[in-house]
Amino acid sequence: MHRIGIISDTHGYLNRIDEVLAHTRSMGLRLWLHAGDYGDDARYMMERTRVPVVAVRGNNDRVQPLEPREQLIPFEDTYIYMTHGDRIRPYNRVQEMITLARGMGATLAIAGHSHHHGSFDAGDCLFINPGSPSLPRDGSGGTFAVAEYVDGHFKVKFYYLRDL
Question: CB atoms < 10 A from the CB of 61, how many?
């Protein structure tokens, strides 16, 4: 089993990132994925954890950030497709993300942007939006996700900051 931390839309709230990193320190994460809206926050995470951090640029990130708009990330025997999601039409976002991921051979698709956490398992591809630990719009009090890769399949667990 391999675990991946997934976070998005942190928007400069470094105290929330510190809470998330403190809670996940003993989980044995192999990778952190930051799905945009503040690339500087991803660099902040890189300085505070020994776990590699991969990030994409969001719609509120600088004009000349280091992060690309999307990433195809090799992981074990599969790929993970990640983008912020602001350039994907909202009315069919989940299906479009799954279609894009499948087309690249990915079995995990990640997007943020909406500040609403959720997932959809399409059988051969899992879509995850980790929500936002900082500015949630779904009444959750702030969320992040941890994906586990077991026997060739991803599954997700959401963590609620109000419960930590």
Answer: 21
The 8-class DSSP code of residue 75 comes to E
Q: What is the pLDDT along the chain (164 residues), one digit of tens a residue?
A: 999 999 999 999 999 999 999 999 999 999 999 999 987 899 999 999 999 999 999 998 876 656 899 999 999 999 999 999 999 987 889 999 999 999 999 999 999 999 999 999 999 999 999 999 999 999 999 999 999 999 999 999 999 999 98
Six token digits for residue 157: 């667990």
Q: What is residue 103's three-state secondary structure?
A: helix
32 near 1, Cβ under 8 Å? no
Q: How far apart are CA 73 and CA 162, in angstroms?
A: 31
Token digits of residue 48: 């505070």
pTM score? 0.96
For residue 121 the two structure tokens come to 């398992």
- 3-state SS, 15-59, equals HHHHHHHHHHCCCCEEEEEECCCCHHHHHHHHHHCCCCEEECCCC
Within 8 A by CB and 6+ apart from 47, the residues are none
